[in-house]
């Protein structure tokens, strides 16, 4: 089942939903099916006959958890769980579970908790027995009626305020780290893209880092950053960010904004696409929409990396490579095999203004600090010493030259 919005191929949407489910550990997917739904029932989502049919199916297969790939109201969730005797999660609830499992940094954990509380706040129609036990008092008040729901809502609001304060401190710390990086200063190259597009595989190939890279959705949640020297000689900080996804609820985008803001600090944005996916174009539009909502500077260079060409047949691969050759901003590669990456890395270097040139630099004997800096950065190709000092042959970029001038 899909929620409101542009119609997508039901089979592909179901495939993505199953991939989401597989991303949760210790979860065995017993089966999946497309359920046509013309007019959702306000109280039960499905009609009486379909509810009975699905109940028998779940019972026969000993299903304990049902995932609905779309929005389910609190009332619908309560009624279906009661009718089917199972736990039910809608798309937002499932993504929250995945985020919770993947969050590794303090910032990520706080963002997940805030998103989960905001989501739960809208679902207080259900009886939250764990909150009721925490209520205390003399026991004169009855069950969790409207009064308890209001108390629960107030408790959630208070917890949200506390989490926001904690997150502000974490974000300030991260801002200090970002300023410290700016002093290096290596340019930042941010990898963005639809989830499961191959960003982490690319990150691993370029950095050798042991970042979790599995064929599952949301394999990366918190941004992973590494300083790396590209084969072209450019020193950069590579940032691997959380994957985007269609129909990502607004409250989740807002909760994870601080994580995605790493993209705003980027000098170059690389949009990694799974070009072998049947809905690659639609996925690219989803990514562009989220980047726009983040307020990415229009002047920030963006490159498109068409990944997974190794999954295409020879004819499709040849056509794709020919198309990429005609557009300087597009690069067809395979992060898995490394095919096409050399040309892409040269384009990144050029976009960063890191095109290197060979020049001669004259230094006096009293400029030992400047000479040491050139050697430390690996820019010196040759050196000749005479009575006036040093004559060095360097290969450097305009950015290197600018840093050197400040010395």
Automatic annotation (TrEMBL):
Q: Name one GO cellular component term.
A: cytoplasm
- Positions contributing to GTP binding: 193-200, 218-222, 240-243, 307-310, 334-336
Could you describe the subunit structure of this protein?
Answer: Monomer. Associates with the 50S ribosomal subunit.
Give the matching InterPro entries: G_HFLX_dom, GTP-bd, GTP-bd_M, GTPase_HflX, GTPase_HflX_N, GTPase_HflX_N_sf, HflX_C, P-loop_NTPase
> Which residues take part in binding Mg(2+)?
200, 220
CDD domains on file: HflX
The record's GO molecular-function terms, alphabetically, read: GTP binding; GTPase activity; metal ion binding; ribosome binding
- Key words, A-Z: Cytoplasm, GTP-binding, Magnesium, Metal-binding, Nucleotide-binding
In terms of Pfam families, this protein maps to: GTP-bdg_M, GTP-bdg_N, HflX_C, MMR_HSR1
Q: Which HAMAP family match?
A: GTPase_HflX
Looking up NCBIfam families in the UniProt record yields: GTP_HflX
The species is: Sagittula salina
Q: Which cofactor does it need?
A: Mg(2+)
Q: What is this protein called?
A: GTPase HflX
Q: What family does this chain come from, according to its entry?
A: Belongs to the TRAFAC class OBG-HflX-like GTPase superfamily. HflX GTPase family.
Question: Function of this protein?
Answer: GTPase that associates with the 50S ribosomal subunit and may have a role during protein synthesis or ribosome biogenesis.
Q: Where in the cell is it found?
A: Cytoplasm
Q: Which residues form the Hflx-type G domain?
A: 187-355
């Amino acid at each position: 089942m899909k929620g409101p919005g542009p119609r997508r191929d039901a089979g592909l949407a179901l495939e993505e939903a199953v991939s989401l489910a597989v991303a949760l550990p210790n979860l065995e997917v017993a089966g999946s099916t497309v359920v046509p739904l013309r007019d959702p029932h306000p109280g039960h989502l499905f009609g009486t006959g379909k509810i009975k049919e699905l109940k028998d199916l779940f019972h026969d297969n000993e299903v304990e958890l049902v995932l609905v790939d779309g929005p389910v109201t609190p009332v619908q969730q309560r009624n279906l769980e009661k009718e089917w005797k199972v736990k039910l999660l809608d798309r937002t609830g499932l993504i929250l579970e995945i985020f919770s499992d993947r969050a590794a940094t303090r910032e990520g954990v706080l963002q997940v908790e805030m998103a989960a509380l905001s989501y739960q706040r809208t679902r207080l129609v259900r009886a939250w027995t764990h909150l009721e036990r925490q209520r205390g008092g003399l026991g004169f008040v009855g069950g969790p009626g409207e009064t308890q729901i209001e108390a629960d809502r107030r408790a959630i609001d208070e917890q949200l305020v506390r989490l926001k304060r904690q997150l502000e401190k974490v974000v300030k710390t991260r801002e200090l780290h970002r300023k410290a990086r700016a002093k290096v200063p290596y340019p930042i190259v941010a990898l963005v893209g639809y989830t499961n597009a191959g960003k982490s595989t690319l990150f691993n190939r370029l950095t050798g880092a042991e970042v979790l890279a599995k064929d599952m959705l949301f394999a990366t949640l918190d941004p992973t950053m590494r300083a790396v020297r590209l084969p072209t000689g450019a020193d950069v900080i590579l940032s691997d960010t959380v994957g985007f996804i269609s129909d990502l609820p607004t409250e989740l985008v807002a909760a994870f904004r601080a994580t995605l803001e790493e993209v705003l600090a980027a000098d170059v944005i690389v949009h990694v696409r799974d070009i072998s996916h049947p809905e690659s174009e639609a996925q690219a539009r989803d990514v562009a929409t989220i980047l726009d909502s983040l307020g990415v500077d229009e002047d920030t260079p963006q490159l498109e990396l068409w990944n997974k060409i190794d999954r295409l047949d020879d004819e499709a691969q040849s056509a794709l490579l020919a198309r990429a050759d005609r557009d300087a901003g597009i690069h067809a590669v395979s992060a898995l095999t490394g095919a096409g990456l050399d040309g892409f890395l040269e384009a990144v270097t050029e976009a960063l203004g890191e095109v290197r040139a060979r020049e001669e630099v004259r230094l006096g004997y009293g400029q030992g600090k400047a000479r040491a800096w050139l050697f430390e950065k690996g820019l010196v190709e040759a050196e000749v010493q005479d009575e006036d000092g040093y004559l060095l042959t360097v290969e450097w970029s305009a950015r290197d030259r600018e840093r050197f001038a400040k010395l």
